[in-house]
Write a structure and sequence with these properties.
This protein is an alpha+beta fold and 266 residues long. The chain is 16% helix and 50% strand. Strands 1, 2, 3, 4, 5, 6, 7, 8, 9, 10, 11 and 12 form a twelve-stranded antiparallel sheet that branches. A hairpin with a 2-residue loop joins strand 4 and strand 5.
Length: 266
């Protein structure tokens, strides 16, 4: 695309814009894609119900490149440093609260938790992508948790992108005990037997995603995922009595792509 500011010069001179000028113009602008829509996810780890929330995504790319692939279940974050093909940066997410009405009187309640930590992303090849996250809870549970994933990608530039791959989640003993354990004090207050939930792998499953360009600047993206609780999380009486071993996620968003000057405001 030729920058509209240079049209008068083209008309007056009656010449073709030099290649160097075109390159400078391309470097001056970028493409921005914003997507928004609804998504659902477990109300809290181990819940048998889902909560609806916003599905929001924003991406940027140079005008002569495709949008980089992002796994739909990754937490919010951005890369800050890169070495040897590995991208590292901060990541964060929010875990919904678990209230007394979600389980039973006497079992612990857990406030809404902000989880902050670090993520690593690796573009193994053009059709393989992996990521790992490690986050610590703030304000609700105070354990360490995270997830890891691998995606196989099939794409035709930005016209369509389809991906699928496995996922696992994990948590330390503090995180596992918060959502899946029953302390002796909780046992005495609730009448349910005490249960000690150790840290480790908490669930395993997979996710699929699609991203299609529609007419003009419009497009649509969506994903669906399933996780099955494993180990101490699956054996938890809290899950057996009040939750579910099956954990579903999904979302869909309409996206819009526009051109903007690099460094400018949206």
């Amino acid at each position: 695309m030729v920058n509209c500011r240079i049209w008068p010069a083209l008309i007056l001179a009656g010449t073709i814009v030099p290649v160097a000028a075109q390159a400078q113009d391309a470097d001056e602008f970028e493409q921005v894609r914003i997507g928004i829509g609804p998504q659902f996810q477990p109300a809290y780890p181990g819940a048998d119900g889902a909560r609806l929330g916003p599905f929001f995504d924003i991406d940027r790319r140079a005008e002569d490149e495709d949008f980089a692939f992002e796994a739909p279940t990754e937490s919010f974050g951005f890369p800050l440093i890169e070495f040897g093909g590995v991208y590292l940066g901060p990541t964060g997410s929010i875990t919904n609260s678990r209230k007394e009405k979600d389980t039973a009187p006497g079992l612990r309640t857990i406030g809404t938790t902000v989880e902050a930590g670090i993520a690593a992303q690796v573009y193994i090849s053009e059709d393989l992508y992996s990521f790992v996250e490690l986050r610590r809870g703030i304000g609700g549970h105070d354990g360490w948790t995270g997830q890891a994933g691998l995606d196989y990608i099939v794409r035709d530039a930005d016209r369509y992108v389809v991906s699928a791959g496995p996922r696992v989640t994990y948590g330390d003993s503090t995180h596992s005990q918060a959502y899946f354990g029953i302390t002796p004090e909780e046992s005495a207050a609730s009448g349910y037997a005490a249960y000690d939930a150790d840290g480790g792998l908490q669930s395993a499953g997979g996710v699929v995603s699609v991203d299609f360009a529609l007419s003009g600047p419009w497009g649509v993206m969506g994903f669906a995922g399933y996780q099955r609780l494993v180990g101490d999380a699956a054996d938890s009486p809290v899950v057996e009595l009040f939750g579910s071993k099956d954990q579903w996620t999904g979302g869909v968003a309409l996206n819009y792509t526009f051109r903007r000057r690099r460094g400018g405001l949206f």
